[in-house]
Each structure stands twice: as C-alpha cells, then as structure tokens.
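INFO  loader      accepted 1 record
INFO  loader      residues=190
INFO  predictor   begin
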Amino acid sequence: MIGFNVAFVRMECFVGASKAPMNTLIAANIHCLEQGIDLLEEMPGSVYSTSCPEVFGSSIGGHFRHNLDHYSAFKRALSTGSIDYDERDRSLSMETDPAEAQLVMRELCDFFHGLADMDLNTPLRIRMDDGGDSTWSETSLRRELQFLLSHTIHHYALVVSIATRSGHTEFPEGFGVAPSTLHYLEAKEA
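INFO  predictor   done
INFO  writer      dumping tokens
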C-alpha cells in the first residue's frame, strides 16, 4: 500500500505567531510545491531531463516547467485580475535544470505564504485556448487554487510514471496522489 499522510490537508498552517491560520487550500498548494522541491533534491539531473517515449515523449523537467508556468500565470493574475494560462514562458532551461525549477518553487512557496490574508472569493477572469474564440470566463481565487492543486497532482502522477521507467523509485509521501484518494485510502485502512 502507498504510504501517505493527509495531515497537510486538514491542518491549520500558521504563517507566523501573530497571523491567523492559513487556509488549507493555500497550505495544500505549498505542500505540493515543497514535495516537488524535495523530489528534485534527490533526483539525478539526467533523470529530470530525459524524455520518455511511453509518456508522450515528455520529460520530468517538461512537466515541472509546465506546472510552474501555470503557477506563474496565477501569480501575475493577482496584479491584473486576469489569468491567461496560455501566456507561458516555456523556459527550456527550466526543463533541463532542476535547480532552476527548485528556485521557482521556493519563490512560489514564499508567494503563497503571502496569500494568507486574502479573500479566496476574490473574483478573477480566466482564459485559455479552447480551440475556438478563447473568451474570458469568470472565476475566483479559490477556484484557481483548486485548479492548480489538481493540475499539479495530475502532472506529478505523470512524473512518477516517467521516473519509475528511468529507475528512480523514491518519492515524497503522497506524491502524485489526490487528497480525495488519500482520504479514501486512509478511511479504508482504518
């Protein structure tokens, strides 16, 4: 059975002694980013940058870059009120250099800690290429945090698939597994 710990989903993360508890959705995104940092601490650079034909020819670095581009688009939205997930940097160096990805993830963790006092019902606009006119839709800070969490976990699952094909089998606890699945497994085990 997969080892797991769902405490991060239920806990109230404190961002400082004088501040209110952090929303669990923000804490869960930070946790996912920290899992990525932890994984890359142990992973050889060659595994990070090698493409895997069985998983769409993608690489672990490509999945990390893709995720971090989405987080960066979200971060930009807080100053503009609009998220365009197709406006991405697509940095090839981030796909080949795990240290660069780790740096960006650390910066994003700091950024998310700064969101502790934000109203998650703050309205935003979102657009992404839908194959048609790509019109703007209404969304909220909360909904986009939910999307980022789900999107990251999905890509982490692909990272596990690529890494295991390359012989890397050590992953942070619960890496690439959705909180709902972790809860299910915890209840089933109890």
